[in-house]
Amino acid sequence: MTKHLILAWVLLVAAGCAFTPHEADLVIDQPQIPVEATVNGARIQLTVIDERDKPDLGRRGAGFAAAKISADDLMPKFTKAVEDGFRAKGYELIGDQSLAAARLVVALRTLKF
Fold it and tell me: Which of 33, 36, 55, 63 shows the smallest number of beta carbons within 10 Å?
């Protein structure tokens, strides 16, 4: 009987982390981008949107009790990385569409772990 209790306890402890929510730490490594001479400070209106069906990155474990893996700071980091990339290319980002040469929408549609 004690062997069964010990085995059940070991299995419960080993599986416990599969049911605990996890937070992913995302780091976006931005490559060095040369400034495009053809851009010449062109003004664009840039909008970054989140079109994912669920804000979490996935699940850890099995069944209905699986733990959610989230990244609450994903969209601010993603938005900043996209904006920094366009600025590094030589674009000027503006908020007023009437003053922009173009309007660009970047959508994050899926990201799963």
Answer: 63
Predicted TM-score (pTM) of the model is 0.69
**pLDDT tens-digit profile of 61-87?**
766 667 778 888 889 989 998 998 888
As given in the structure block, the two tokens for residue 47 are 């909008």
Q: HSE on the CB side for 76, CA within 13 Å?
A: 4
How far apart CA 63 and CA 81 sit, in angstroms, is 35
Full residue range of the structural domain in which residue 85 is found:
2-108
- Locate 46 and state its tokens: 């840039």
Structural domain count, the chain = 1
Distances (CA, A) of 70 to 19, 20, 21: 13, 11, 8
* Residue 113 covered by a domain: no
Query: In degrees to the nearest 10, what's the CA dihedral of 6, 12, 17, 18?
Result: 140
